[in-house]
Write a structure and sequence with these properties.
The chain is of the alpha/beta class and 225 residues long. It is built from 7 helices and 5 strands, in the order E-H-E-H-E-H-H-E-H-E-H-H. Strand 2, helix 2 (40-54) and strand 3 (58-63) form a beta-alpha-beta unit. The relative contact order is 0.17.
Amino acid sequence: MKKAVVIMSGGMDSTLSAYMVKKEGYEIIGVHFNYDQRTQKKELEAFEAIAKELGVVNKYVLDLDFFKHLGASALTDKTIDVPTSGLEDGVPVTYVPFRNGIFLSMAAAIAEKEGAELIAIGVVEEDSSGYPDCRENYIEAMQKAINLGTKDETNIKIAMPLVHLKKSQIVQEALKYDVPLDLTWSCYKSEDKACGVCDSCRLRLNGFKQAGIKDPIPYETRDAV
């Protein structure tokens, strides 16, 4: 069976990507990163639950503890507050420097080892106005670099099946693929109930609202959108 390495954060986007890739007939190799993010425990719990639901047997959980030394992001540096106003312009303070580049590099090493022909990542260009490593042309450049830097017989494609979708479309596609949305987690701040006011919660809640569906995970507030 053909194999795909899927970067799975435990969030809605990467989970839908995994379900889409499995539907295409790939054996899923799930890769999850612990990088000292604020919601690390909850994200790992979500990944494990989703992997079980999806029937993923081959899993990698990688600890990247250097991110805490790098800092420079509200996700990894607790002295920087996670924005909750929804008014941030430019590159958000929640951007983790070159995170997707590092994740893709690790995924490429696993793909080469496992003989996988595909890496899937749930980037969405709706986020790219803030996150430069979510842009389609950047991922395409990474694919070229990965194939230049691996064995001649290695030929890896990076799939980004959600890159042109809006959050409301992602919600609708998730329902179509029977994705267990209640197991996913998107909040940047909290691990018990989602805060409802960070950028990620706002994007997610707005997607559900536009799709006309109630988000099944618990929130402190749903009134910010």
